[in-house]
Design brief:
There is one protein chain. The protein is of the alpha/beta class. The chain is built from eight helices and twelve strands. Helix 6 packs antiparallel against helix 7 and helix 7 runs antiparallel to helix 8. The chain starts with 17 loop residues before the first strand and ends with a strand.
Amino acid sequence: MTAILPSKPSDQDQPSFRHELYPYRGDKQFLSGTLGYIHEALEGGEAVVVAVPADKASLLRGEFADEHDVTFVDTTTLGPNPGRLVSAWVTWMKERGDGDRPVRGIGETAWRGARNAAHLSELRYHEWLLNRAFARSSAWSMLCPYDDADDDQSALQSLSRCHPLIRQDGHYVRNESYLSAQAYPFEVLNAPCDPYQELSYTHGDLAAIRSKVSQCAADAGVSEDQRLKLAVAVSEIATNSIRHGGGRGTLRTWTQDATFLCEFRDAGYIPDVMAGRTRPTPDQIGGRGLWLAHQLCDLVEIRSTREQGTIVRLHTDVPRS
């Protein structure tokens, strides 16, 4: 990648949170890079948290079976929504940090397991958000291995823009294509698929919204358990629209690619890019609606600008027949 500088950055150049992308090809290169990264950590007295696909985890477990300072975690228990990952990493890092002890994470996303283009886009957004979430966490570092076996340079370039550093030959170098503090370049949301249902709502319409979504979800084949979860998420997002989006909004529902979607549009603006991705504190006032939506839905997409207002899309997987 031409955007990489040829030398190791100085302490003044690098961000406090060291976030490295590690492109590799094949198990041999995966092990070479990750083993070197882990040994660096252990030699420096740091703990390590490893969250990689099962086949990669099995390669590393054999090397560190008796190493107390290397912990393996299973991201599949979180479900498919990348919006749950930031808070999970915060928990894992704090648990292993024992106060101020430095911790290194290794997080490899199963990119080829992405359900659709929307899911893939949110996975990339999660990688970019890690820089914002941990901007002041100088005690934490993360390596993100990426299997470049397909030689898809456009995909690699898109991902590299989410990482300020690239690991090469056992060292990290600064990545000039990193987006830094710029606004994240979201993909434009596709228009709803025909046929779709539409309902305008305002104060006093929550019951009608829940009823509409429940019926449309049942018609789409969403399970009863998921419909109950979706009803809670729908209530939270619609309430946010009414309270913070000008008192009214528009609901659209449709089914696409084995996914039932609920879209909420209003005139509000969400300035906090981390909204819904960090666990609310017990004494926090507000801010729980988007968090609950992320916990209850298989994917949540948010697009919000001062000029165009806010769109929130809730995705629920539909069992394939």
